[in-house]
Description:
With 91 residues, the protein is mainly α. The protein folds into two domains: 2-31, no CATH class; 47-83. Helices cover 45% and strands 7% of the residues. The chain is built from three helices and two strands; from the N terminus they run βαβαα. It has helices spanning 10-20, 47-61, 69-83; strands spanning 2-4, 29-31. A two-stranded antiparallel ribbon has the order 1-2. The two termini are 44 Å apart.
Amino acid sequence: MVYQVRDLSPEQKHAAEVLLGHPVAEDESISIKTIPPATIIPPKLTPQEAVDAWHALCEKFGDRPEVDPVEEEEAYIEAMRSVRPNFRPVR
Length: 91
């Protein structure tokens, strides 16, 4: 909802200024929106089970193979273009 500062009571205006951290002018508008807290899903593994799973993956797949920096950069640029079609890398 959008509020006009000129329509706020002195208490409401003061509260807005406290929340914003600066004075507001009579010709300004203020928008207030609530955001629900993010849902955090707790892990199903105990810390020791997570460590054991990590070690099992390392044994199965070994260390990460060397990556060609040029291929890695090209893959990054392509990924950026897939989500931002106008993306232009700075070189």
